[in-house]
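Page 42, continued from yesterday. The earlier attempt failed because a stray header line got pasted into the input along with the sequence. Redoing it now with the clean sequence only.
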Amino acid sequence: MALTDPQSITISSATSSLPQTNSGNNKGEYTSADGLIRLSAAHTYGRRTRRVLRLDHSKITADPFISSTNVKVSMSNYMVFDIPPAGYSNADVLAVYVGFKALFSGSSDALISKLLGGES
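This time it went through. Structure tokens are written below.
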């Protein structure tokens, strides 16, 4: 089963549509028209179930070493659920995620700001 097509994301007040561009067994990919934003979802089954939601973002910016040249730079951000084959229901996993999300998004994303600043 696929995610809703298209997906939509807002980054710095700019909303981008991400129509599905690839699908296969246990995976799907959604890409912006300019190819600079890609959302992927993938599932791996084995001794543990691994579910990954990943966002890859690229932009064109001035080269810090050659000021007259622009370069493409990229980053990624992803979330992994690593679940044992038994013992956690989807509701259990969701409850853990909701607590985690509240931890990192509370206080104006202060925890993530500190993480990005190198704090541990």
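Notes: The two ends are 38 Å apart (CA to CA).
Reminder to self: strip header lines before submitting.
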